[in-house]
Amino acid sequence: MSFHSLDYLVFVVLVVGVYWMLDHRHQNRLLLVVSYVFYGWVHPWFLTLIFASTVVDYLVGLKMEADPLHKKRIFWLSLAVNLGLLGFFKYFNFFIENVRAVLQTVGLPPAFGTLEVVLPVGISFYTFQSLTYTIDVYRGTLKARRNFVDFALFVCFFPQLVAGPIERAQRLLPKLEQPRTFSVDRARSAVVLLMWGVFKKLVIADNVGVIANKIFALEDPNFWLLWTGVFAFAIEIYADFSAYSDLARGSAQLLGIDLMV
Q: What confidence tens digit (pLDDT) does each residue in 154-183 have?
């Protein structure tokens, strides 16, 4: 589900409408459910990965606090699982393609068939966000959480799940655990951020991206034209990420939660 799509607009309106009719505990349960719906909208099997990371880090946090003498060994389990999953899905295809290329270069037939591994969207963001929790518990700067719903929501909070910003556990978790009240001023600020984010994405990033793509498609662009393409691409990338950050912050503010700038 794309941030600047009609589906997302309907999704947010429905969520916000129901959300402010509930008490704090039910608000968090609702957010957890809708965050999983949001993440599994296109590929439901992605949910198995984020749920696995969540369960592992939740149990690792509790175990490190219960057994401080072996917390380093327990912490390595969190690193191995999270970075192992990230590395596999992010670099498996790259590794296989290069092994096949090497075998073909020396005249050997590939010993395996082609296997395309789909990269789960947002896996880098929620992996590193979840790791901030186990790192903080390991360092002793954060207490392990007993409430699984609150912790799972911290990992998969839908406004910043797929494009950040990545929040440290000691900053975002307390905000999710505290009761929230509706504020007209915050809601107004949220709508402005959402509109500005959509403008930066659709008007700036997408249009500048067309210019960059056309220049880079040329067979022999001159020096100045090539540098125009470079700067256009830089503006596209900045506006894209900036737009998604604004959309994430605006969506969160509608729910009474302030994300970092």
A: 999 999 988 878 889 999 999 999 999 999
d(CA 102, CA 194): 48
What is the rounded average pLDDT of the residues 52-72?
Answer: 94
Answer whether residue 232 shows pLDDT above 70: yes
* H-type alpha helices, the chain: 6-19, 24-39, 46-66, 71-105, 123-139, 148-156, 169-177, 184-199, 206-216, 223-254
Specify whether the CB–CB gap between 258 and 175 falls below 8 A: yes
Q: Which long-range contacts (C-beta less than 8 Å, at least 24 apart) are formed by 116-120?
A: 117/88, 117/89, 117/92, 117/93, 118/43, 118/89, 119/89, 119/90, 120/43, 120/46, 120/49, 120/50, 120/89
Match 């790259």 to its residue by tokens. 94
Dihedral angle computed from the Cα positions of residues 83, 88, 92 and 95, in that order, rounded to the nearest 10 degrees: 40
